[in-house]
Each structure stands twice: as C-alpha cells, then as structure tokens.
Amino acid sequence: MESPPPEFALPVDSEHKATEFRLFSVAAPHMRAFHLSWVSFFACFVSSFAAAPLVPVIRDNLNLTSTDIGNAGIASVSGAVFARVAMGSACDLFGPRLASASLILLTAPAVFCSSIASSPTSFLLVRFFTGFSLATFVSTQFWMSSMFSAPVVGTANGVAGGWGNLGGGATQLIMPLVFGVIRDIGAVKFTAWRIAFFIPALFQTLSAFAVLLFGQDMPDGNYHGLKKSGEKAKDKFSWVFYYGFTNYRGWILALTYGYCFGVELVVDNIIAEYFYDRFNLNLSTAGIIAASFGLANLFTRLG
User: Fold this and answer.
1) In the prediction, which pLDDT does 274 show?
2) 131 near 77, Cβ under 8 Å?
C-alpha cells in the first residue's frame, strides 16, 4: 500500500516545490529553508568583512602597511572564488544543507583565530580562509531552486541572496559597536578588537548547527535518504564537474557576476577605512556611513 502524499503549508507543484513565496512564514520545509539559508549566508558575510571596519585599529596593532591591508582584502575575495567553484559540485553530490553547514563549520575556526593574528601574514591567512565561507551563496541559490517553482524561484533567490549580502553592510555597524562596548567595559583597544571577533565567529557557528538541525535539502527529504530509497539518482563527481565546466552559459554568467559582485567585495573591504581616514571620523560614524552601501541589498533585489 502506497503512503499518502505529504502535506505542505504552501501550495506546491508536481515536484512539491512551492508555488508561493510567503516572506513572513517559517513553514517547513520551504520557508524554513529560505530563512535558514539567508541567515547563515548573512552570518558568513558578517564574518568575512568583520575586519574591514576595524582596520584602523588592527593596522596600528599589527603594523600593517597599505599593501598588507590590500593583500588581505584580495585574499578574502580569492578564498571565496576558489570555494565557490567547489561548492556547486558539493551541493550536487551531498545536498545544499550538508554542503552549507560543513563549509560554515570548517571556516568558523578561521574567524576565531582572527583574534590571535599577530603579523601581516597571519592576518592575511585568517582573512583568506574566512573568505571561503562566502561560497554559501552558492548553496543558498541551489537550495532555493530546490524548494521553489519557476513562478517564484527568482524572488526566493533574489531575497535570500540579497538579505545574506546585507551582512556586508551590517558588519560595518556591528563590529565598531561591539568593539566600543568591549573597550568601554575596560579592555584596551588592542585587546578589544580581538575579543570582538568572537561575536561573528559564534554567530557563524550557531547558524551552521541551525541549518543541520532544522534544514531539509528538498521538499521530500534530504539527499542521503532520497538516494538511499532510490527516489534520487546518485551522481558522480566526474560527471557533475564535466557538465558544469563545459556549460558556456555558466562562464558568461561568471564574467558578468564577477564584474558587479567583485566591485561590491572591494568596496566592503575599504569603505569604512576610507571614511575614517579621509574625513577624520571615529569608527562608529565611519561604520554607519559605510553600512549604507551594503544595506541597500535589503530592497534592491526584491524586484
């Protein structure tokens, strides 16, 4: 006797993908996946750019030159590029839930280790490995495409990606505030910035556990269970990589996306420091102005 079809809180199509996008719903599995994806991606953005608004303090502590700061910014972006190439295959093979949570947990130690950076080289390395976490953008988009049908998948992808990118602006506000609170409690500034990194590191770690505990790869279950039951075909890495590498549409999109998103990453890395130095502002004021750039993602992707 066949089991009855599953019931969902949202209307679904023949593949059980949601045909409606209800922003303020947390219904499992569709809207829960949406909120888990953007929050975890947001956490990774906060971690990856947590150093940027504190650079005026960090550079004095570590004796960083302009070249050192520039190289660290490039390193954080480079880490994201390499990781995103692999993340697509990981999602195909293991599902977006496990791929996302694993990457977040693997890169969280780098965020914690930011607090013990003691030289330009160690600062560059922690930023490089933290940057890998930005590949959660790939799992976010993959996850939304697995949960929502054609009429609403663009909205789901846009809002999830945009709200995740909010982290690039929010961290410009959060980190100077956290730094200021820790310093006011009694820590000297060269200790306060190190303690401040525990906040994004903890946030990132908790988001990974939330994805693992409450997320689901597809409307009907997780990849492991679906493959085990035969409901989903098992993929081979060689074929996944081959078809992805030879798809010319992917290369076209990579170029166009790289030009626009690349600019965003560069600006996120330098904007707070620029306002701090150019206009002689304090960290909090420079962070507030810098945040306005990244926070535009709140509404610019809704269309």
Assistant:
1) 92
2) yes
